[in-house]
């Protein structure tokens, strides 16, 4: 019985070097966020980033986000797209240290709240 339990725990364990890069994307602006894309910073131009939002984030709302590739990486380039066609980018953002990204929309800077 102990062997079965030990084997089950090993199978559920995270691989060495795994990260949990969950964070919250907050829309503090007046325009809906329609897209959120991330790509590993070292692979920019090599891969096409997919929209991680299942639906838009209306003003005043937020969504929890966890990029698929983030389990083994920290540095990402991030793009946020808005319903008015505007988009903003952040490059080389360390998602291992991010707890919350607050977007006020337009040309206003993002607020990055760290996990520590």
Describe this structure in words.
This protein has one domain: Immunoglobulin-like, CATH 2.60.40. The chain contains 1 helix and 7 strands; from the N terminus they run H-E-E-E-E-E-E-E. It has one helix at residues 2-12; strands at residues 23-27, 33-40, 62-65, 75-82, 87-94, 98-103, 111-114. A 4-stranded mixed β-sheet has the order 3-1-6-7, with no helix packed on it. The chain is globular.
What is the strand and helix layout of this fold?
Layout: H1 2-12, E1 23-27, E2 33-40, E3 62-65, E4 75-82, E5 87-94, E6 98-103, E7 111-114
List descriptors.
single chain; 116 residues; mainly beta; Immunoglobulin-like; 4-stranded mixed β-sheet; 3-stranded antiparallel β-sheet; 1 helix; 7 strands; globular
Average residue pLDDT: 81
CATH superfamily: Domain of unknown function DUF5300
- Helix share bin: under 10%
DSSP summary: helix tally: 1
For the termini, the CA-CA separation is 40 Å
**DSSP strand count:** 7
Largest sheet: 4 strands, mixed
Q: Rough shape?
A: globular
As a whole number of angstroms, the C-alpha radius of gyration is 17 Å
Give the class-level CATH name: Mainly Beta
CATH fold-level label:
Immunoglobulin-like
Helix-strand sequence? HEEEEEEE
Strand content: 35-45%
Strand order of the largest sheet: 3-1-6-7
Task: Summarize the model shown.
The chain is mainly β and 116 residues long.
